[in-house]
Amino acid sequence: MKLYAERPGRAVRQLLADLLAVGWLAGIGWLAERSRQLMLQLQTPATGLTNAGTEIADAFASAARTAARVPFVGDQLAASLDTGRAAGQSLAGVGEQQLTTISMLATGTAGLVLLTGVMPVLVLWLPLRIHYSRMAGAAAACRERDPDLLALRALTGTSVRRLRAVTEDPASGWRRGDPEVVRKLAAVELRRLGLRAR
Question: Would you state the pLDDT for residue 143?
Fold first, then answer.
């Protein structure tokens, strides 16, 4: 595999595309984290609700303990105050449930932003880079050993106008095995991939 072209113009364009893709991914990561933080700010009222419920439960529990010491009616007073403690605990439980729900929503939102942002890179940029790397690597390997195969690739993948610039009848020259025509056609294919000829 060959990651970058050997010709400076194409190599610079590839490097810029790679930097753009990495920058895009970094920006998407930042955006996902920022959206998560914004969603977590919705926890402020739920935190207040949890704290208020806990304080109410503690106040009623303390009052129930004190009331239990009153002679004759202490147990009934403590039981009545214990209802308030249960209501405070219920209020705190609702707040904690909201905290959990908001946390899950924040994580889900961040994941959705991340997935949506990463998809263009995975669908567009990555397959193109892998395809180029494989094509350029195979062409570089053929450069010395099998220029005839590169010439054939040029014949099948290059415009007629560019082929006619090599020679008037490139297909006949290739069929005859004319070394000069094969060399020029191989150079056309290598140039198309941003590689240098032999």
Answer: 87
Among 5, 11, 8, 14, residue whose Cα is nearest residue 125:
14
Res 71: pLDDT? 83
The pLDDT score that the predictor gives to residue 80 is 80
* Cβ–Cβ < 8 Å for 186, 150: yes
The residue with tokens 């249960």 is 86
State the amino acid at position 132 in one-letter form. Y
Please state whether 134 falls in left (phi above 0), alpha (psi between -120 and 50) or beta. Answer: alpha
* CB contact at 8 A, 53 and 95: yes
Beta strand residue intervals within 77-180, DSSP E: none
Q: What is the pLDDT of residues 113-138, one digit of tens each?
A: 999 999 999 999 999 999 999 999 99
The Cβ of residue 86 has, within 10 Å, a number of other Cβ atoms equal to: 12
Indicate the DSSP class of residue 185: H
SS3 42: coil
DSSP letter at 6?
Answer: S
| pLDDT the model gives residue 31 | 97
State how far the Cα of 12 lies from the Cα of 5, in Å rounded to an integer: 9
pLDDT at 152 over 80: yes
